[in-house]
Amino acid sequence: MRTYYHVDRGRSLRAGLALPLKDGLSVFGQAYWFKITANPPRLDDDATRREHSLETLRRERFGNLPGSRMTALFAAATLEEALLFAERIEPRPMVPVPIFEVTSSRAESRDSLWL
Questions:
Q1: What DSSP character marks residue 4?
Q2: What is the DSSP letter of 82?
Q3: How far is the C-alpha of 34 from the C-alpha of 82, rounded, in Å?
Q4: Rounded distance, CA 75 to CA 6, Å?
Q5: Which residues pair with 102 in a beta bridge?
Q6: CB 69 within 8 A of CB 29
Q7: pTM recorded for the entire structure
Q8: 10-residue stretch averages of pLDDT, the chain, 115 residues long
Q9: Within 13 A of 107's CA, how many CA atoms are on the CB side?
Q10: 3-state helix, strand, coil in the chain (%, to 5)
């Protein structure tokens, strides 16, 4: 079992919560999947355009590899890294963003440059 630290910008987690994929999508993926796979895609903001571009590129060049952002929970390897990430969030939140310790028996790790 590996331990990670998730900065919960969406404030959707609580202690003890299990995070199964819903229809193969993480909470992050659920926020974008139906917009980016619509015909035509609904690319009405910068974040959705980014996710559409990244998922299109992933499928075209690396479709045989696992690792779609649509199944991801983004987390840091250490609490210190999570705290540093939380300090750099833009726009700056009015109240501190909660950080949760997350454990998983199955995970892939990538650095932010890969993502």
A1: E
A2: H
A3: 29
A4: 4
A5: 4
A6: yes
A7: 0.81
A8: 94 93 94 95 95 94 88 94 94 93 87 60
A9: 17
A10: 35, 15, 55
CA 81 vs CA 89, 99, 101, 107: distances in Å: 13, 11, 12, 18
For residues 1 and 95, what is the distance between their CA atoms, to the nearest angstrom? 31
What is the chain's length? 115
Residues 66 and 109 sit within 8 Å (Cβ to Cβ): no
User: Which among 23, 34, 25, 27 has a CA at the least distance from the CA of 75?
Assistant: 27
9: closest CA among 102, 72, 91?
91
User: CA 96 to CA 105: how far, in whole Å?
Assistant: 29
Query: How far, in Å, are 32, 45, 46, 59 from residue 42 at the CA level?
Result: 9, 9, 11, 18
CA 94 to chain centre: 22
List CB contacts of 80: < 8 A, sequence separation 6 or more.
none
Q: How far is 86 from 98, CA to CA, in rounded Å?
A: 9
Token pair of 64 as six digits: 């045989």
Angle between helices 46-62 and 27-36 (to 10 degrees): 90
